[in-house]
Input
Amino acid sequence: MASTDATTTNTGAERIAAAFANKAGRAALMPYLMGGFPDLETSRAIGLAYADGGADLVELGVPYSDPLADGPVVHDAGTKALAAGTTTEDVLDVCRTLSERLPVVIMLYSNLVLARGVEAFVAAAAQAGASGLIVPDLPLEEADEILAACDAAGLALVPLAAPTTPDERLRAIGSRARGFLYTVSVAGTTGERTGTKESFAPILDRARAATHVPVALGFGIATPEAAAAAADAGADGVIVGSRLVREAAEADDPATAVRAVVADLAAALRT
Amino acid sequence: MSTSEAAVEHRYGPYGGQYVPETLMPALGELETAWVAARTDPGYREELTVLLRDYVGRPSPLYLAERLSEVAGREVWLKREDLNHTGSHKINNALGQALLAKRMGKQRIIAETGAGQHGVASATACALLDLECIVYMGAEDIRRQKPNVQRMELLGATVVSVEAGAKTLAEAVSAAIRDWVTNVATTHYIIGSAVGPAPYPAIVREMQRVIGDEARAQILERRGRLPDRVLACVGGGSNAIGTFAGFYGDPSVKLVGIEAAGDGIDTERHGAPLTVGGKPGVLHGALSAIMQSPDGQILEAHSVSAGLDYPGSGPEHAWLRDEGRATYIAVGDTDALAAFREVSRLEGIIPALETAHAFHHILHGDGGGSELDLLCLSGRGDKDLAEVLARG
Ligand SMILES: Cc1ncc(COP(=O)(O)O)c(C=O)c1O
Output
């Protein structure tokens, strides 16, 4: 198993680096879950099932009223989680549980960080065992304060790079990346799409040339074939979101169902 | 980035910024570069000026509303944006941005709309300039602003119903931004108010400042003096910022923005983030006064007028408020509905429900010692008839 013992490393960035270094497959498997969806306890069970199924790292989403980077599946799950009363604090509690098994990177929108206060939020996330933050509406230009707070607290602020990002800008993003560089595979919101080694390779090559941290590919990877194609194209990590959130929405027993999907993805990355 | 930071402001004090997905950042840079080039390009200026004159009907008249003045107890002058082609101030911005999109080589236009006025203005500009037009509109607004939906479709636009959340303006903006993230290479987003990530608030203000610039020259010519107060209703704040901008250099002129109090600002059902205050937050790419829960979730706004039914505000307004340069107050649904009828009978002008909020303040609010008010009459009320009459 690729899970990393927190006691052997002292910062979130190091724990993430160890997860990449010790990954079981050709690329680290990094599934996403929406905290509080379909309800808080089931989301906790889903995260644990990800670990059981062979995840190397988990991305834990905090539901938000206005998720600009998300497509309908993740948006819907967030809306339902909020309607069920999920709070940021609840999701941090799930983080606490999951971080005992594997590194957790919290994905949330900037207003949720600002509402609590940057330092207070980052401290709470670190307290909850998070290894890093992904803030999809926080480009380079707005990131200074949150990056400084994350660095001080030992959390990795993971930036996103898009297909539309020009090379020079990509280098600026890459040089400030902590943990890994989250490379978006297509211009668009989160959702299930298809992709091939040939379509992923140029994006990954460009990202790799711009940074010293591992490069993970996300937004649209939904099948074992696509995950394998991303690994073949040189991805250090593969992020799978909407496919798993949809499984959690549709299955009678979400934890069992997502575990099977994650296991299939993990198997595809091992062969 | 190739854009010049000094050319267009990104922040108003602490407010503004660009809190958007990375995918959009290059497009915002490209827009800023195109705007900086266009605004000083005599070709662009001339094309826009001629269209504003011959197609929109500018300059819009400044009208002394005598019967209304009598009731108010002071002179009230109306800047008649309701007489523009398509019936509101929104065409000033839509036309300017559509011309800009054409310069950028973007053939596909997306827009959001609340009251439908910005959607109609965008659909009109796109018909004129032969651009594809897709308008995102909340399902609730489609219901309450039906005539504008029919106009947009007649003009050749595709209206997409947005079913998320409260099904009103805020969700329509989010849906438009998601479309833009996906189709950014081919598409320009004509945002309809002075909101959104930089450089939008600055571009929209500059497109709308024709209101304030004309009004200032007109009142000086007609009355030989400046107004004591300049007033405008505030949804996102485009008609207000455009009107106010003409008077920034006149410290004696009080600037007053009127937001929607909905059921009351002591309830959660309003659209008055500037009036209520509270912790600023990020909505639609900018830090500004917004309505949010303690956790930072965006709250649903409420107003009888679709154009003011928005939980955010333009970042420059938040700064004008903090600086004490402008003040903001809120008027509720009931008062706005009454003013809608009152102004119709007093002046023979059926105002937009949005502007009716400001009329209530002028007629029945605290005059603040003003002897001469100048109000931006942002639009006409034909679109609101069914909704108002249904309320008895
Ligand atoms: C007539 C009219 N006035 C005012 C508004 C509010 O927008 P803004 O605050 O951007 O001027 C609208 C918006 O739809 C409108 O149609």
In short: Chain B is about 45% helix and 15% strand. The two ends of chain B are 56 Å apart (CA to CA).
